[in-house]
Amino acid sequence: MIIGLYLDDFSLLNRITRRVKSKEFTLRHIKNISRIDKKISVVISKDYVVNCKIPQIQPKNLEILELRIRCAFYNLSDLIVGIDPGGTIGIAIVGGNRVLFQDEFENVKNLVQIMESIQEEIGLSLIKIGTGSPPERNQIVRSLDKYLDIIKLVNENRSGSGSHTVAATRIALKRGGLENP
């Protein structure tokens, strides 16, 4: 996927190029927006570009930039989040039957900041939290209390062990057996 960078703010350009690590993205600088290459899938710009028919992103939180690119490309919003609670917290974001984003957090505060950015910049429809590790699970639920109407608890049986992001993905994809916290 080719991502067009229509930026003259070199500090922001530098931060974006350092943040985008996935090999699925090829970054290409755009000098003239009116002569944009048809191979470009998503445009990243500092300000909204009027009359640009290609999906655009004006990044706020660069930690979710790759997620924003995928959501713009696939035209997705109202995402499902799977959270594997524990000493290391796994998170997986799913939308359109695709795993769009995975990460791990060492503390709940960083998780909450990411969740707030995703809700603000893209949108959340459901947050599924695994029932394992009750102290950590309860701390996560309390920290995400403003999302209580979309939080569901999911039995973690057969969600896997070892990789927190794999477990979070399985939690996000589980159907049925959802309980209110």
What this model shows, in words?
The protein is of the alpha/beta class. It has helices at 10-19, 65-74, 108-121, 134-143, 164-173; strands spanning 2-6, 26-29, 40-45, 56-57, 79-84, 89-95, 98-105, 124-130, 151-154. The strands form two sheets. Strands 7-6-5-8-9 form a five-stranded mixed beta sheet. Strand 5 and strand 6 (89-95) form a beta hairpin. The model has no long low-confidence stretch (mean pLDDT 91).
Q: Which stretches are poorly predicted, pLDDT < 50 over at least 5 residues? A: none
| Residue fraction in strands | 25-35%
Count the beta strands: 9
The overall pLDDT, averaged over residues, is 91
Structural class: alpha/beta
> Main beta sheet: strand number and arrangement?
5 strands, mixed
Gross morphology is elongated
Q: Gap between N and C termini, in Å?
A: 39 Å
Please, how many helices? 5
Write the topology of this structure.
Blueprint: E1 2-6, H1 10-19, E2 26-29, E3 40-45, E4 56-57, H2 65-74, E5 79-84, E6 89-95, E7 98-105, H3 108-121, E8 124-130, H4 134-143, E9 151-154, H5 164-173
Parallel strand pairs: 1-2, 1-3, 3-4, 5-8, 8-9
Antiparallel strand pairs: 5-6, 6-7
Relevant terms:
elongated, single chain, alpha/beta, 181 residues, 9 strands, 5 helices, five-stranded mixed β-sheet, four-stranded parallel β-sheet
